[in-house]
Design a protein that fits this description.
Helix 2 runs antiparallel to helix 3 (41-57). The chain contains eight helices and 13 strands. By secondary structure, it is α+β, with helices and mostly antiparallel strands. A four-stranded mixed sheet has the order 8-9-13-12. Strand 3 and strand 4 form a beta hairpin. The protein folds into three domains: 6-128, DnaJ domain (Helix Hairpins, Orthogonal Bundle), CATH 1.10.287; 136-230, Urease metallochaperone UreE, N-terminal domain (HSP40/DNAj peptide-binding domain); 237-326, HSP40/DNAj peptide-binding domain (Sandwich). Bound molecules: zinc ion (ZN). Zinc ion (ZN) binds next to loops.
Amino acid sequence: MADRDYYDILGIKKGATDEEIKKAYRRLARKHHPDVNKGDKGSEDRFKEVSEAYAVLSDKEKREQYDRLGREAFQFNGGGPFGGSPFSGFDFDFSSFGAGGRGRKAAGKVSDFRDIFSDLFAGGGRAAGPARGSDVEARATLEFGDAVRGTTLQLSVQLQAECANCRGLGNVKNQVCPRCGGTGMAATTQTVKVKLPEGVSDGQTVRLAGKGGAGQRGAPAGDLLIHVAVRPHAYFERRGNDIHIELPVTLGEALQGGEIEVPTVHGPVRARIPAGTQSGQTFRISGKGVKNSRGAGYGDHYYRVMIHVPGQLSETAKKLLDEIETSYDENPRAKLKTGL
Ligand SMILES: [Zn+2]
């Protein structure tokens, strides 16, 4: 690659126009792009060669210099890819595409190349385009109340981010970065602040767009997917966005009716049960359930009345109960057969 003429590399004539140079470069860069030829060393070398030729010939000043002095004017010192570039302003290297543009001075040359790359693969299907960052998955186990109310978590996630050692450049002092092997990307553990919506439920996956692994060459970052588990509550049971609870009442409350305090996930609500409420009868309080985390509105709150029987009775209570027994004017088990 050291001696070939830049015009030959791009397959164009000496007097080629800027447009012809650009066109030739696009065709060859597309053909030899590392994303298209994964692991093919020959293609990678060709790609670098083509990129190098284009970097010089697309720059009016450098092209003139090259036409006048030949390749000696741009002798590279070896080291990393394009390392030791002797001319200032020549701010292109192969690995710079891995930087995603961050943490790097916005040199004109680089953005120029990036522009070309962005339309180089336009419409060419995702597989061939600049690699979007990978989706990252994490798990979070929430307390029941935090899930109902929504919460903010600090999650520690492993993801691909710009390599801190080379700041995404892929090389350090003309040597391939030992930390990322020249890719400009490295696995890092990051603490991510995550806001989970009110009403998030057990088994739900919350997707946070753009919070996953960093993309390459300015491609968008992946998403962060959080698989949510919710611990059960001692007495609130969630079914969909409704809450169910068993509510103990006294014999007197069931017989005579009354106003009782019903616990809900939104706090206590005063409610009436009618006289003659049966054990197991279920009542509903509208809109006092859980918020629909994917839309609007709240579920309902259901409470199932259970008559609580006291463990011990005083002599007075026993006498009173005898009176109550006489109020049963029919056999409550009349509808049941006595066996099969
Ligand atoms: Zn690195």
